[in-house]
Every structure is written in C-alpha cells, then in structure tokens.
Amino acid sequence: MNRVVSASVAAVAMMCASTATADVTFNKDVLPILQQKCQVCHRPGEIGPMPLTTYQATRPWARAIKTAVMTKKMPPWFADPQYGHFANEKRLTDAEISTIVSWVDAGAPEGEEKGKPAPVTFRDGWNIRPDLVFQMPKPMKIPAKGTVEYTYITVSAPFKEDTWISAGEIRPSDRSHVHHVIAMVRPKGSKWMAQAQLGAEPFAPGPTRQADMLRAVGGDMSVLTSEFFVGYVPGMEAQRFDVDRSARLIPAGADIVLEVHYTTNGKESEDQTKVGLEVAAGPPERLFLSLAAAQPGLQIAPGDPNAEAKATVKFGQPVDLVYMQPHMHLRGKDAKIEVTYPDGKRETLLNVPRYDFNWQIVYYQQSPLHLPKGTELLLTGHWDNSAANKWNPDPTAAVRWGDQSWQEMLSAPMGVIIDRDIDPKTVVERGGFAGAGVQ
Fold first, then answer.
1. What are 130-171's pLDDT values in tens digits?
2. Level-2 CATH architecture, domain 124-284
3. Which of 97, 172, 190, 293 would be 432's cystine partner, CB 3.0–4.6 Å?
4. What are phi and psi of 294, to 5 degrees?
5. Please, which residues bridge with residue 379 across strands?
6. How far is Cα 40 from Cα 46, in angstroms, rounded to an integer?
7. Would strands 246-250 and 286-294 be described as parallel, antiparallel, or unpaired?
8. Which CATH fold would you assign to the domain 285-439?
C-alpha cells in the first residue's frame, strides 16, 4: 500500500475510532448508504459478487466491507474530485465511511425494524424498460484456455423505418468471460463486417480488424461505416440517450451487429448476450452521437514504468458533451482529458490518476457541457510496463496497439449531442472519429 493510501486509511481510522458507537445500526444507518451507493451492483443478477440488500446477506461480509471502504477500493470510482462533477458519482463521503466502519467496530448490529428504509425496487433483469430485445441466435461456447478473437454476430434484421432510441442496455449471460460487447449500427450499404449477416455463423476477422481501423484513421473511413450504439464493459451501466431533448437514430435499412470480446479464465462456459432498447416516443429535437479520441500508433518499450501517449479531437461543429470513458488495458496507469477552447482557455474535464482495467467506468456530466466549434480535446494516457505492475502480462515485451488485453489501447469513447440540422460527418474536424467505437 502506498504512503498516500496509508495516510488516508490512518486518518479515516482515527476519525472512526473517535465516533464508534453501539448506536450505529444496519437498519438505521448502513442500509441507506448501501441502497444509494452499492446495491446498483450488489444485488442478484448484477456484477457484484454478493448481494448487499438485507442484513442477513450483508452481515457475513462486514469486515471485508470495512476494509474495502477504508481503502476506497469500493465503490469503484477513480475520478479526481478536483476536476469535474459527475452525475453517476458513487464515491463515499468521509461521514459515510465513518458510519460503516463504526457499525463494524460495534459488532455490526442489525438494529430495530422501526425506521428501516423500504427496499429499493429494481427492475427484474433490466435496468431500463426495453421495447426491443435482440439476442444472440444461440449460445457462444467459450473455451477454458487460449485466445478468442473479436467475434461479430448480427442480431437484427434491417429496420424497416427510422427508429429513435432513448436508452440501451447490454446484458451478457456470463459476465465472467466478457471483456466487452458493443452493439454497432451498420447502415444500409455499409461494407463494414459484411461477412456478419443475420443467421450466419459468428464471424471472427482476427488481425484484419486492427488493420482496418488503422486505415480508417488514415482517411479511408469506408471500412468503418458503422456506429458505436450501446456498450458493455465491467462497471458500465445502462446508457440513456434522452438527454436534453435528444435520442439516437437507427436509420431505415440498418441492422445491429454485436462485437464481442471474450477472455478465457480456465473454465469452459457459454454466453448468450442480449441487447435491450427503449424506443423514443417520437423524433427528438436533437441527435445523440458517439465519437472517440484514439491513438493507434502506440509504442511502449519493455520495462517502461511511465510510457506516455496522446490523442486529440478537434470539433468542426458545436457539441454538448454528455459522457467520457477513458479506455486502456492491463498496463494502463492513468488518463486525463483536457479541452482547449477557441479563445485559448484550457480546462481539465476528467483526471483518472489510478486507472483500473477491471472497472471501465463511464463518467457522465451532471449536465451536458457545451464545447464550441473549434474546441480541441486532448487525451493523455500513461502505462506501467514494468515488473512492479502486478497486472502486467509481460514486462519484457514491447507493446503496441492490439485487441487483446495483453496488448494495449488508448481511446476515449464519448457521447455528444448535436442539433438535428448538423451533418454528423462534420462533427470531427481533425483527429479521432465520429460514429465508430474503439474498445
């Protein structure tokens, strides 16, 4: 444990020691915190390994919970509080940490039923109310060992008419093997992953995907005529698109293709992922669009403890920024997103000083941030390719951009809102790209 974390733990411990009291109970004090900050993940069917919905389910984990909150391992939240304020922030306050620690130190009493908050009602199986549900036609078999290349599966027939979507969610049936899933909208006439058709066997192009993306960044966008629509990575919640009078568009004639990245973990398994979409009540006033900053030209030297790379996007149109999601792999160390406005003013929008590959958090602005035409966004990332990084697959390896977790990436998918009269192809003036996602 480093000195900064040790000092923080010591300070919290001293504070809790001075306030510990038998009056702190689960029902009165701890359960409201769990409902607000923890149960979104720690409930049946979600990513949390144990439910924290009742006293009986929580009590066996009391000491582990104390350690997790004192070290700030849980809830997972990595944004530096000095920069930005985010709608989905789950960081515990010092007072909340003190309450939980005091409860454990007092013997984790249950307390009286009187005053206990009512259970939070969660939707069974979905966090949205899907009007459309698409599923892999059959379960995908995942081997116990080896490499599973990115796999592409078409899950919808062409849409007969323009369809506006207000929310989306992806739910793998086996999260333990899923690195990510992206539902991509492939417009009519697109050549992107043409081999992946409805009813066809899953298509795995292998290394050609990387080559295709590199060509696209160099200017040949025809191979990436698709749009990142909704995604899943560990820690990613359902995504809403009905922000500030907006929605996402699936144009007539398009279909939905899943890009699935499975990782092996020593056990054979099967997965049959589902995609749920809420249909908007009608055409919106504004358009929700995905874009990304990316730097495919990565070169990380063996043993380098602080390799650096940057990626930029210059906006050719005014946009309202809804979310940001820094993305790296196992060697990822930290990431920062800054913007320089047309008048020269510079601002840090997001700083992640301790990047954690195991939690791919999407950071939602409290309200959309207006970025005028000509604003330039800068993404900076660092990697620890030394033996000191416990997640490092091979500190002796020279690392470049690649799909697999032992390779690396630097990207930042973003959600923006634009006016309906703006051509999406003009949103990015330089660097990055609109419509395509990189995971």
1. 999 999 999 999 999 988 888 899 999 889 999 999 999 999
2. Sandwich (2.60)
3. 293
4. -155, 150
5. 311, 337
6. 8
7. parallel
8. Jelly Rolls (2.60.120)
